[in-house]
Amino acid sequence: MKEQVEILVADDEQEIRSLLGLMLKNRGYTNITFACDGLGAIDVMQQKSLDLAFLDINMPGIDGISVLKHGMELNASCFYVIVSAQSDLHSVKDVIKAGARGFIVKPFTERKVVDLLGKFEQTYVDAAQSFEALFKSGAI
Question: What does the alpha-carbon distance between residue 44 and residue 40 come to, in Å, rounded to a whole number?
Fold first, then answer.
């Protein structure tokens, strides 16, 4: 399953992209695309059907919330996670309202990423099982 998951990691900090990429690869994910700014992230979103996306809230050009909103228009089923150095309640509420399913505060721990991946994996498996049940029932 993990080798089929399409992932985007968008952050203007090379260290964060590398760290998240390494954490994802260590968990068995291999289809990871990286973007260093908001425009690059949107470009990836238009080219790929993403399952999981990590978006920095503060990127050059287009900020993460705008990228998230654009992504929701293209693919609302993607599991969007906002990465931010800001952890104030207003920021968290804004990203959840915009459609994010997760929020990671920098600096983050591997445990936090693993917890979010667990939440994503359960969502992904549930969706696949629902689709299979609909298919078997003849509804689709």
Answer: 6
Please tell me the distance from the alpha carbon of residue 11 to that of residue 82, in angstroms, as a whole number.
10
pLDDT in tens, 37-52: 999 999 999 999 999 9
Pick from 76, 87, 69: nearest CA to 123: 76
CA-to-CA distance for 36 and 21, rounded, in angstroms?
Answer: 13
User: Domain 2-137 falls in which CATH fold?
Assistant: Rossmann fold (3.40.50)
Task: List C-alpha distances in Å: 55 to 16, 39, 100, 134.
Answer: 11, 12, 10, 32
The phi-psi region of residue 118 (left if phi > 0; otherwise alpha if psi is between -120 and 50; otherwise beta) is alpha
pLDDT per position as a tens digit, 113-126: 999 999 999 887 66
Q: For residue 47, give both structure tokens.
A: 């080219």
For the chain, the domains span: 2-137
Task: Put residue 54 in one of left, alpha, beta given phi > 0 → left and psi -120 to 50 → alpha.
Answer: beta
> Before 60, cis peptide (omega within 30)?
no
